[in-house]
Structure formats: C-alpha cells, structure tokens
C-alpha cells in the first residue's frame, strides 16, 4: 500500500539542519567527506517501530485498525529517515549520516481472513522497496559533489526526491501486481528488488 506523502516530514532533520562545526575562517579550503551507516535498535515487541533489517515482518506486527474503505487486504506503513552531524578535522569536513528504514506497527493493519503467507510476502516487499530507495539515496549522496556552504540543503533536496521515488515505486508495485493478485508479476518484483538490495550490500 502506498505510503501517504506527508507521513515522513516530521522525521526530517531538526530545525536548523545538521550540527555544523565549520569555523568561518576554515571554509575556504574545506574538503567534504560523507560516511553512512544504517542503524536501528534491536526488535522490541513493546515498541511501535520495527527497523529494517532486524527481521522480516510478522502478522503480529500489524496492530492498526483496518480502513473501512479501499481494496487493500493489508497495509504496511513503512518509510525511511536520516540524521547526522558534521565535524571539522584539519581541512576536512566529515559528515556522518545514519539511515533508518522502519515499519510503524500502529499504522499497519490487516483485514480478518487475510493472514496468509503470500499476502505477508506482498507487505514485506513494500518494506524491501523502502529499503531499496534508502540505499539509492545513500548512493546519490556519496556521488554528490557536496560543498562546504550548502551540503545540508543538497542532502535534504535529494532526500525529498528519494521520498517521491519511494511513493512512485510503491504505487507501481501495487498497480502492476494488482495489489498482489498477479503472482507472476509479484515474483518479478521480488527477484528484482532482492538483486538490487544485494548489489547495495543489504540482505532482504
């Protein structure tokens, strides 16, 4: 199920962006380096959030109330966010970014009579697609010629573009598979996403 476009904005960087550590006098010769890590706490059944790739989804993770409208048998509410900081070391500005790909239990639901393995695999693939887009975002940032003056805004712009890409892919997945009704096409998506995640160094 497509994630609503507004759902992640509260997870953008805190007001004011990253923690800046570049003295004005040093900016002229600053080299910018970026390092990524993907992190999330261990699975906590009491938490409302499950982080990728702690483990695959279970039907018990779907704790929300089913919508009264729409064709979906289940909805997996997934998204990704990032946080980070910067530190100046001699003439190098080192930016460390942490990616979090997550599933929100209270916003995810399944209708009675639909808790089968195939349907769960469909919802898991939504989670995998979200992770794939997060990895593409990482790759874009690592390839960017970031500058000392506006690296923060450049990263935020690419994040928003990736967020839009995530929504487009989620929508295309549901449309092409007819919300999972076309098993052959769903398998094609499964294979494709698994290949791309493996190439990015992530195991679905």
Rg from Cα: 19 Å
Task: Name the shape in a single word.
Answer: elongated
> Percent of residues in helical segments?
25-40%
Helices, by number, come to 3
Give the N-to-C terminal Cα separation.
Answer: 18 Å
Strand content: 15-25%
How does the major sheet shape up?
4 strands, mixed
Determine the structural class based on helices, strands and strand pairing: alpha+beta
Low-confidence stretches are 1-27
The string of secondary-structure elements, in order, is EEEEEEHHH
Give an overview in words.
α1 (117-143) packs antiparallel against α2 and α1 (117-143) packs parallel to α3. A hairpin with a 2-residue loop joins β4 and β5. With 204 residues, this protein is of the alpha+beta class. It is 35% helix and 20% strand. The model is unreliable at 1-27 (pLDDT under 50).
In short:
The protein is α+β, with helices and mostly antiparallel strands.
What keyword list fits this structure?
single chain, 204 residues, alpha+beta, four-stranded mixed β-sheet, 3 helices, 35% helix, elongated, disordered N terminus
Strand and helix layout:
Elements: E1 31-38, E2 49-51, E3 74-75, E4 78-89, E5 92-104, E6 109-110, H1 117-143, H2 151-177, H3 183-199
Parallel strand pairs: 1-5
Antiparallel strand pairs: 2-5, 3-6, 4-5
